[in-house]
Amino acid sequence: MESGHLNFFEVEECGLYTWSKASTPHSMELLELSQQLYDWAIKGNVAVTSLSSIDRTYSPNTKPNCYIYDAHKDTNTGDLFLVLIKSDGSRGEYIKGIDPAQGLGNSDIKSVSSEKDEGRIWGHPCYYWILSKENAVVSIKFPHSLADADMFSCYMKSFVLYKAQSKLLKKTESTSGEWVREFRTEDDNKSLRFRYSMHQFNSVVDDAAIREILPKITHLIKRETVPLSAGKKKGGIVDKIPELKDLSKLLNKRGGKRKQDTVNIEYRIELKPTFAIVKSIVMQSGYNPKEWACMGFIADNRKVFAHEYRLHESIVKPRGEGDIISAKGLSRSLLQRRGEIVIKIRKPNARSKLVSVK
Known about the structure:
It is built from 9 helices and 16 strands. 20% of the residues lie in helices and 32% in strands.
C-alpha cells in the first residue's frame, strides 16, 4: 500500500506589511488568506485557478504552471487541504491528465498510457495541509506526487496580489485604462506589501534515542557518489587519489552497455561526538532509499544511519481513492492524527530551521 511522508514548514511571514522590516501585519494573515483562497477556488473550474491566469506576468513557457485540482476546508479546525497540479509536458512516469473545464475535484483522470488528450492539463499532484492556527504548512509526498515549496509560496503571493479582497485594497485606474491594485493602511498614509515566507523544520528528532547511542559512537560515516574523473577540472576521486587511476578501467571491464562514470564511497572519521553534533547531523541529513548518499555513525561495531533517529511522520494512501487523492480523503487521514502532530510541532525547540523558502 502506498505511503506518503510529511514535511513540516513554519510560516515566518504572512500578511500585509509596511515597508519597515520590524512591522507587524495589518491584514491577510494565514487564517484569513486560507479562507479567501478556498472561497475563491471552489467557485470556478480548474482552468481559472492556474497561476498564469492569476498572474499575467507569470510565464508557463519558462516555468511549470500550477492549478488547484481540489480543496477542502475543515470547519472545526480551520485547516485547509489543497491538491495542486504542477504541470509537466514530459509525459513521464506517474503523470496524469485532468480536464481544466471541470469544477474542483470533479475531473476524470487519464494516464498517458491510456489516452493522450491535448485538451487536458498534464502534470503531477502536490498535496498540502495548511494548519492556519498553528502557523504551519505540511506537504505530503507520495511516490506518485511531487512537493514544491517554492511553487506553493509563489501561488500564495500571486493570489493575494491579484485576487484577494481586503478593506485595505485600493484600486486606481492607470493612464492606459487598466485597474491597479494597491494595499494601504487604514489611514491611507502608508503603502503595504504582501510578504510570505516559510522554513522547513524537523519537529520530530528522537532525543532520547540519540542520548542512548551517544556513548557507543566511535566513528562518523559519510557516504557520497562521486565522479571517477572530472577531466581537466580535476574533481574526481581518481584525481584526488592517483593510485586509483586504473579504477575506471577495472569497473568498466564488466562488459556492460553503460559506462560507469561514478563510484560510491564511504568516509569514516574516528571521533567521539557531542550530543549537539549528533543531533545536528540527524536534523540536517537527508535520506533517499534510491540513493547512496547519507550520513551515519559506527556504534558498537555496527553502522547506524542518521535518518533512523528521526521520528518520521507518514500516512497511508486512503482506501477508495483514485490516482489523485481528493482533498477530503486527505483530510480524513490527517485529521485522525492531528492532535499528536500538533503536540510535536508545539514542542520547545521543535521548529529548528532547515531550509528557508520565500
